[in-house]
Amino acid sequence: MPTRRTVLVAAAAAAGVVAVGGSVLATRRPTIPLTLAALRPLVGDRFEVEGRTVTLTAVTGRGGAPATETAFALRFTGAGDLPGATRSFAHADGDLVLHVEPVGPEGSTLEAVVGRTA
Q1: Torsion angle of C-alpha atoms 97, 54, 108, 99, degrees rounded to 10
Q2: Which of 12, 19, 38, 95 could make an S-S bridge to 33, C-beta 3.0–4.6 Å?
Q3: What is the pLDDT of residues 6-27, one digit of tens each?
Q4: Burial class (CB in 10 A: 0-12, 13-18, 19+), 91
Q5: Whole-angstrom Cα distance, residue 62 to residue 60?
Q6: Is the dihedral of CA 98, 104, 105, 109 positive or negative?
Q7: Start and end of every DUF6916 domain (predicted)?
Q8: Do residues 56 and 20 lie in contact, with contact meaning Cβ atoms separated by under 8 Å?
Q9: What is d(CA 38, CA 19) in angstroms, rounded to the nearest whole number?
Q10: Spatial separation of the C-alpha atoms in residues 17 and 82, rounded to whole Å
């Protein structure tokens, strides 16, 4: 039967592995850059978000303006009833973390707006 000391030493060693990156325990997925150049080619692709499959249907400008590297919007369909929140979207190329809000009828479309100042 292990002693209390043996258990504490093993727990400390495990905590040390986690503290130095935990690469032994998990691998990190790549992230998709939040740029117009990286996202435009993904229009029509599927993403997984909280157990649901959504499709990136558009990368557009904001308010009718043309999309630029500093200002654009992403639209995803197939979200059902997901409320607005910051969510992780998983794609074959990597993950994308966005704050999205439901728009359109029944909130079936999620929109993320990207705006950067120079």
Answers
A1: 0
A2: 38
A3: 444 555 555 544 444 554 556 6
A4: middle
A5: 7
A6: negative
A7: 34-113
A8: no
A9: 32
A10: 36
DSSP code string of the chain: ---HHHHHHHHHHHHHHHHTT-TTT--PPPB--SSHHHHGGGTT-EEEETTEEEEEEEEE-STTSPPBTTEEEEEEE--TTPPSEEEEEEETTEEEEEEEEEESGGG-EEEEEEE---
User: At 24, which amino acid appears?
Assistant: V
Nearest Cα residue to 34 out of 117, 118, 113: 113
Domain boundary assignment for the chain = 36-115
Please name the residues in contact with 95: beta carbons below 8 A apart, sequence gap of 6 or more: 29, 30, 31, 32, 88, 89
pTM: 0.73
φ, ψ dihedrals at 15, nearest 5°: -65, -35
Using CA atoms, how far residue 94 sits from 24, 82, 85, 107, 111, in Å, is 20, 21, 20, 26, 19
